[in-house]
Design brief:
about 35% helix, three-stranded mixed sheet, alpha/beta, 8 strands
């Protein structure tokens, strides 16, 4: 079933409104040829992440361009050192994240490093740090080891 861009835009806007943790009024939606462009400002990385995933789930979405900016409110601002410390604890305490996964932080963006056995472990590491206060973004460069034959 092919949807018009206007129909897809309306469906995405409704999906964003229904998504807890996303302030749909802060997010602009544009659609051209099934390519969704999200813009605006949100107060947390997790809200940005959820908005993008919500748009991706709407049938008819061919791709999503994420132009949403994370603008931390004053009481959410943390130093890179505080975020790194929180990320280290989050990775250590998550039972799905194996030893050897590490994080670096620059400009409030966490980069995850290391090697894991499964894609699930790679995703678990990202999930462990995504909602930390003060984070503006997460880059996951964790490598999944090739299975042993």
């Amino acid at each position: 079933m092919s949807r018009s861009d206007a129909e897809l835009k309306e469906l995405i806007e409704r999906a964003l409104e229904a998504e807890p943790g996303v302030d749909a009024s802060a997010i602009a939606v544009a659609v051209t040829d099934g390519i969704v462009i999200l813009g605006g400002e949100v107060p947390t990385y997790s809200a940005r992440w959820m908005a993008v995933r919500t748009a991706e789930r709407v049938v008819g979405t061919r791709a999503v361009v994420d132009e949403i900016q994370v603008r931390l409110v004053d009481d959410h601002i943390r130093s890179d050192a505080d975020i790194a410390r929180a990320a280290a604890f989050a990775l250590e305490w998550d039972t799905e994240v194996p030893d050897g996964v590490t994080a670096t932080v620059e400009n409030r963006i966490i980069t995850l490093h290391g090697e894991v056995d499964t894609p699930h472990q790679r995703e678990a590491a990202e999930r462990a740090v995504r909602n930390l206060m003060g984070v503006r973004g997460v880059v996951n460069v964790i490598r999944v080891r090739a299975p042993v034959a």
